[in-house]
Structure formats: C-alpha cells, structure tokens
Amino acid sequence: MTPPAAVAGRNNTSRGAIFTMLAMLGFASMDTITKWMVADYPIGQMMWVRYGIFCLFAWFVVRHRGLRAALRSNRPGLQLGRALLAVVESAVFVLAFRYLPLADTHAVAATSPLIVIALGVLFLGEKAGPARWAAVAAGFVGVLLIVRPGFRELDWPLLIPVVGAVLWGGYQILIRLCSRTDTPETTLVWSAFVAFGATTLVGPLQWRWPDATGWALLVAIALLGALAHYALIKALDYAEAGAVQPYSYTLLVFVTILGIIVFGDIPDHWTLAGAAVIVASGLYTWHHERQAGR
C-alpha cells in the first residue's frame, strides 16, 4: 500500500497551478481539433481511437514500474467510477461542440470551478477562504462578461455544457479522492484502460475509415488528451481541488485564441475584457497562495 503521506502529503499550489494551466492548454487544443472533426466522424469512433492511444501513453509512463503494478489500486471501485465518469463527461462535451461554438461551450462550462469548490468543501473537507472564493467569483464575472446573459436567446444546446460542467466538477473531486491513496500513475492507467474498454462497446460499431489527414488529427487529439489528463492528475496530486480552480479559467482564454486562429471567430471588446478579468483572478490567487505559504 502506498503510504498516505507519500501520496496526499504534498501541497504545492504553485506546481498545481502550472500543471493546471498546462492541462487547460492541452484540453483547448484537443477540443479545437475535435470540433473540426466532429462533423465528419462519429463521437464513439473518435473517443475509441483517443483512448486507445491514451492506453499506449499510459503504458509508456509506467513502463519502468510495470503495468500490473501500476494497476494495483487501494480503491479500485472509486477508480472505476471516476474513469467511467470521465468517458461520459467527454462524450457530453463532444456532443456540445456539434451544436455550439467552441468559446460558447467553454464559457457555459466555466461554472465548473464553483462546482468543484462547493463539492470540495462538502466531500473533501477542504477549506475555501474569502480570497479563494473572491478569485473564483471574479473569474465567473469574467465569464458573464463574455456570455452576457440576457442579450442572447437560451437555446437548448446550452444545457449540454451545463451538464458537462457538473460532470467535470465531480470528476476533479474524484481525482483528488484517488490521490489520497493512489499514485498519479495508477490514476492515469485506470483512466486510460477503463475508458478504452467502455468505448470499445460503441467505437467499432460506428467506424468510418479515416484518410491520412483524419488519422493524423485523431492521433493528435489522443496525445493532447492524454497529456492534458496527466497534467491535471499531477495538478490535483500537488494541490487541493479548490486551490487550482481559478487557473482552470485559462481554458476559456486558450479556446478564444484558438477560435480566432482556426475558425476566424474574432472576439469583441466584451470578450477581451472578460478574458482579462479571468487571467487577473488566476494571478491574484497565485500571488495570495504564495504569500500565505510564506
């Protein structure tokens, strides 16, 4: 059994923040390619290929330790449920990309940090001081500046990323729970192989043979997703779930930039103002946590 002190004893918010932002960049890049491809390939097929390559990535990470050893979990039921939740959450967001612009989807989904902090307090016993709540609230204000509710019609597809945000928040809480008894490598391996097993039930049935470009993009999606998940697992191994949530708002900044580059969606001044508030809230939290750590 892995000593709890060796797994959950680390509490380095700065490292957690860096890994969180790297994860958000990976997810933003993956989602951009996914939105490009979802019109031509079935969701089940895309996820099956993605998690198949994710398995190879996970094996490469744990090859020195051995796959069988890495699969040994102190809480296998929790790992199984967490990995299956990740599959459902991913499918929900891919479905949202079919109906909504990239930035709109992530703007609605940006409510997840509030969900994580609330769930962290309820189920993990984490403390959320006024500064942390203020930073997350400021980031949410930035999201409101971008979405500007009341100035647009509420179409039913906007409910899809709301469901995704709840699932994403729960997934991060379960990662933190797993980090108390299992190593990041164990969580990574369970994430890959359980998800691949689940998507194997639907992926081959929806198969549409890709061309060379399609294969390249599918591999890119898989590698970006694997790297992003591993970075997030490392982030939640180093820091409390609530501590890194303000940094997850950088995902919205990344998808906005990629939306300009790939789809030509140029943000207006409200979007730029909201992005500035989001970045400022993350920097404020980082500075406050460093001062408190001293």
UniProtKB/TrEMBL annotation:
Gene3D superfamilies linked: 1.10.3730.20
Keyword Signal: no
Domain of life: Bacteria
Domain EamA intervals: 15-147, 159-281
UniProt keyword annotations, A-Z: Membrane, Transmembrane, Transmembrane helix
Key word Metal-binding present: no
Record's signal peptide: none
Pfam families, sorted: EamA (PF00892)
Record's protein name: DMT family transporter
Organism encoding this protein: Reyranella aquatilis
